[in-house]
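Worked Example 4.2. Read the sequence first, then its structure tokens.
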Amino acid sequence: MKRKLFVFICLPVVIFLTGCGSKAEEDDIRGKSLPDYISLTAMIVFVEDNFIGTDLMRGYSVSNDNFDPEDYLVEAYRIQLTNETKFIDAETGEAFYFDFSDQASLFEDENLGYIYDRDGREVEVKTEEPFTPAPSADRTDYILSSHEFLPIYTAKEVTLYPLTYESFTFRHAVKDTSNVLMIVETEDYFSEPFYEEYDRLWKELDSLSENRSYIDMYVMDTAGLEQYSLPENIDQFPYYFVFDDGDVALHTDNWEEVTTFFSHD
């Protein structure tokens, strides 16, 4: 178990992919953000495809058994971010910029989470260049596995919408794997008692891993949790989310329920 602390071309289809995206303005790109695994200075914006439409969570249902790249069309874009890119919090209207040339200050910026924790966040992008919707074909793999050869635009302005329960699930749930997300209060994060408790719980999970090929465990503090609009009010900590095969299988403040889940599966 890995130990950690702390995704044929026919005219009707083309019309569908270029006409159904919910864009506030004709020249905006609006969709769900995906991280660019190469650099912080780029992001992927997924609009829709002909396998799952706009429902990014359903992307976990796509596998080698039901995916044929020859029939695949996706509208998605690689968005380059610069020091001049204006970021806007859609809830507060606050505008801010990042200095991508100074990594030391970048990683100390309190707003970094807006672009670092961006899996599944809804965004709207105004581009420096004239924007033309363009579905991509002739791809080698599904969009969640491969971001190569997408149309590239430079972001003039990026509006960031609140993180939702869907984006929370998308970020932590992975098809064909199981993991536990432990929520701890911010003031307890990385304290010595926290490390001791984490180590104890991790060893318990490790002893249950023979029932599964893979169980992972992550940690998030309450400040990180507050970014998401979760349907339930959580006020007892530590709190645990169990993700199994791409979905939330259990959430509880009772660790015994977590171990029971893995013991009986």
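Now turn to a second chain, presented in exactly the same format:
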Amino acid sequence: MKQEDLIKTCEKCFNNWFTKIRNLHLKGIVRASGNIYCATEVQTFESSDHFIIELAGSQPIISFKPIKAFKKTIKVKNSTNHLIGGLEIKDINKKKALLSIEKCRKMHYIQCDFFSGINSNFYKDLGLGGGKEEIYEIPFFIDSESNYILLDNCKMSYHFNDLKYFYRVISFALFIKKNTKKEALARFLISTFDNQLKSQYPAFMGVFIDTKPNLRFRQELLSLANQPVHETRIDDFINQHNALFAKALNYKGARSNIELKIIDKKGWDKSSLIPDYMMEREDGSYDILDLKKGLTKNNLTKGGKSRRRLTSYCYELVAQLEGYKRYFESPLNSQWALDNFGIKMNYSPRLIGIVGNQNSFFREEIDEALLVHRDNIVLFSYNDICDLLSSKTKFS
């Protein structure tokens, strides 16, 4: 199957499915104990043996808008590694997996949660924990011969090598052999969806119920922060939930990717700057926010307590933020931003950076390293953002 056919087939089938669920919900035929949501995007991946179709994002089914299909298929090392992208396990084999899927020719349906070595309130708050704890290194092993492996609303978290924690949520993922014809894929998706409607206990694949405020957004944000994805992928996801993100940080709004033209060119070697977000305060002034990856190979600080400093990756984030601040220190630049975008900047705006996850961002070390920088620079991990969203803490 060609990549283009894969993407178009998935986009059409899922849009038809979610439209059908929305119509049934509006008629009162499909009901739930909480708000019903579905995905906003579909991403395709390619391993040596499989195409992998994965849904992400969330939107109320009652106001469903057609999902966005990413036009590029991302290549991954192998099918099993795609599920555990945040972990580096050199020797992946079925003996290390809780569930091994081998030579499966018909649909293998999986809907479950896995956790190992995790017993913190943080993970329980994200919908994991409790029950019998299993000890394993990876949740799944998928061999090269298996076809039509379907994961629906799965969550995984586990402790790895006594040092790292991993978290992953999958709204919907389908693994198909690369030699599958587009017609066969379409028939499979349509028949699988139709069979769900006829089932005594329908699962409504790709659809979920959110009974806690912001829960799914927190789950998917932290999941992205545990995967080897570029910050633009995280930015796309946050932008779909713009209002939630702004509220978490106690802002009135978040305006993304505004291109700030440099009028006063003294000391600049570029024509414009594009901060990830301009965060609007209640008084109408703005702070500046930039994103970096959640998954990093190393800690974000280095050196001992007396010489604590940021790594080059983290320092690059700080330098970007300080560059945006310098832009607004010029009256010409500041006036241009006000005239063209209504952006009013205080003398000392807060500069906010989001980077790293539970394996690389350690608050005490970060704060020690920031002592030599401006007082108005604040760094958060993606875990911190999830805490703010759950209203455990307040940012002011």
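Notes for the reader: The two ends are 52 Å apart (CA to CA). The chain has a mean pLDDT of 82.
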